[in-house]
C-alpha cells in the first residue's frame, strides 16, 4: 500500500494533495471504492499486520521460545519419566505423542488473546473499526480482515513450531505429511477463534468475561482435551470436554499427520467437519454482529 501521508517536522515538504491527484498516481475515487469493495478484507488484514509490526520482536521470541520450552520440559523431561514408567503412548514415545497436541494448543491459546481484547478495543477503546466503516469497506470485511491477519500470523507461528518438532525428532512422518500439522493447527484456532471473535463483538462493557473464558474454557481444553494423555484415559463422564472441544478434534488430526496415529477415516471426517463447521458458523456470526454494531 502506498504511503500518501504528509511528512512531519519543520523540514518536511508541504503535502500537495491536489498536485498528487493531478499527477495521475492516485486512481479516481470510484476506482478506489471499487477496489475496496472487491478486496476490503485483504486491505484491512494489511492494516492489522502493519499494526503487529510494533510487536514483531515479542511475537518472534514467543514463537520460538515457547515450543522450545515445551519440547524440553514436557517432551524430553516429562517424556523420559513417562517412557520409563508406562512405555509407549498410542504406540510412540511420549515426546512424539505430545508434540502435535502442544502445537494445536499453542495456537488456540494465542488466538484467545487475538480475538478478545483487540476486538473489543476496535469497537470501544481505540475504536479502530469505526474509521474504515466510513469508507466503502463493509463491516463483514473488517471482521474477515482481522481474522485473515491472525491466520497469516499463525501460519508462521505454526511453521516455526513444526520446524522445532522436526529438529527434536518429534514428527517421524514424511515431511510432506507432518507439515500438515500447521494447517490443522490454524484450522483449530479458527474453529475456536471465530466464535470467540463474534462473542467479543457483542460485549459492550468488559466485566471479566474474557478472564472467565481463559480460566474456565481455555484451560480445561488445554488440560482435559487429550493434550497430555489419550481422552480414553479419563473417566467416561469427562469425555464430553473433548467432544465439544476444538482442541481435541484438531489434536487427533495433527497426530495422524505427525506420526500416523490410528484414527478411523470416519472419525477423521467427523473431526474435520466439526472444525470447519465451527469456523464457518463463527465467521457468519461475526459478520452479522459486526454489521449490526457498526451500522447501528
What would you say about this model in short?
With 296 residues, the chain is mainly α. It has helices at 17-22, 29-52, 56-85, 94-114, 117-125, 130-133, 139-167, 175-178, 181-200, 209-224, 239-243, 246-259, 265-294. The protein is elongated, with a radius of gyration of 22 Å.
Please tell me about this protein's structure:
This protein has 296 residues and is mainly alpha-helical. Helix content is 72%, strand content 0%. It is built from 13 helices and no strands. The protein has helices at 17-22, 29-52, 56-85, 94-114, 117-125, 130-133, 139-167, 175-178, 181-200, 209-224, 239-243, 246-259, 265-294. Helix 2 packs parallel to helix 7, helix 3 (56-85) crosses helix 7 and helix 9 runs antiparallel to helix 12. 39% of the residues are buried.
Give the biggest sheet: none
Tell me the overall shape: elongated
- Over all CA atoms, what is the radius of gyration? 22 Å
- Mean of residue pLDDT values: 89
Tell me the span between the first and last alpha carbons.
30 Å
Low-confidence runs:
1-10
Number of strands: 0
Query: Helix share of residues?
Result: over 70%
**Number of helices, counting only DSSP H or I runs of 4 residues or more:** 13
Query: What is the string of helix and strand elements?
Result: HHHHHHHHHHHHH
**Overall SS class:** mainly alpha
Strand content: under 5%
